Amino acid sequence: GSFFYLNKYTVLNKKMKPTPRQFKEAFERQEFITKYLIDEGYAENEDMAKNVIMGMSEQWYETILRLNEKV
After folding, report:
1. For residues 16-40, b (16+ Cβ closer than 10 Å) or e, as one string?
2. Which of the two residues, 4 and 17, has the higher pLDDT score?
3. Could you tell me if residue 16 is left (phi over 0), alpha (psi between -120 and 50 degrees) or otherwise beta?
4. What is the model's pLDDT at position 68?
5. CB atoms near residue 71 (< 10 Å)
6. Which residues are within 8 A (CB) of 2 and not within 5 positions of it... i.e. 6 or more apart?
7. DSSP-H helix ranges across the chain
8. Statement: the pTM of the whole predicted model exceeds 0.85
9. What local confidence, expressed as pLDDT, does residue 37 receive?
């Protein structure tokens, strides 16, 4: 399953389901961070990257996302 990371980019009430757009944006963020972690040697594959993402701080997560904005 996809890891749905809630942060300042996605504000949801616990009772609300993500909209298709929010789900797509969360999926794209996860894909970018997964690729980054593998490319930079933090993880060897997608499963390892998902474990890293689950344990990473929100600050590190957002720092990586800002790299995507600069591209």
Report:
1. eeeeeebeeebeebbeebbebbbee
2. 17
3. beta
4. 85
5. 5
6. 23, 26, 27, 30
7. 20-39, 46-55, 58-70
8. no
9. 97
Q: What are the tens digits of pLDDT across the range 28-59?
A: 999 999 999 999 999 999 999 999 999 999 99
Other residues' Cβ atoms within 10 Å of the Cβ of residue 53: 20
Query: Residues for the chain: how many in total?
Result: 71
* Residue showing tokens 């930079």: 40
User: Which residue in the block uniquely carries the two structure tokens 């794209």?
Assistant: 28
- Cβ contact 42:52 at 8 Å: yes
Q: Which two tokens stand for residue 29?
A: 């963020």
